[in-house]
Amino acid sequence: MDDGDEGAVRATRRKRADARRNEKTLLDAAAAVFVDSGVDAPVRDIAARAGVGMGTIYRHFPTRADLIIAVYRHQVEACAEAGPALLASSATPHAALARWIDLFVDFLITKHGLAAVLRSDQSGFDALHAYFLDRLVPVCAQLLDAAVEAGEIRSDLEAFMLMRGVGNLCVGADADPRYDARRLVELLIAGLRRPA
């Protein structure tokens, strides 16, 4: 390969890396806006938060459904990657679990809007839900197991049950401003502790 070919390959790789970074920035901004304002938030709010023009968002995600599905997958991956990182960086496994559940609540807030967007595509929704379970149940189980092994929490709770309980506490949180799902989830996680 001559120098010109090598330069073209490097430029292509750099362009791909830049495109991935830009897409991640867009997805992070969209996730934050969706958590704050719901999945019906104006695209201009996402563009402003990401520091890009609206055309950039539409170039990456031609429809709102495309954007919401991409945010959903992005948040699943972020939650999956956060579990081990939180275990490594938190003072205790229970603290790591609590921080991870907080991220999971943010994800659930966005996920509830997804159902409305995919109303007409049940198989697409089912595939995303299976992906969600495949990626996140093992991470939650790892966090629970670490807290059990440390003697911090009860040992009679399965990851799926905990995630389902947290999900149920989050349902309808946007319908009543007096309902604080996050506070109830905090109480649930605190209640897992073994008595001293």
From TrEMBL:
UniProt cross-references to InterPro entries, sorted A to Z: Homeodomain-like_sf, HTH-type_TetR-like_transc_reg, HTH_TetR, Tet_transcr_reg_TetR-rel_C_sf, TetR_SbtR-like_C
UniProt keyword annotations, A-Z: DNA-binding, Transcription, Transcription regulation
Domain HTH tetR-type positions: 20-79
Binding region for DNA: 42-61
Protein's name according to its UniProt entry: TetR/AcrR family transcriptional regulator
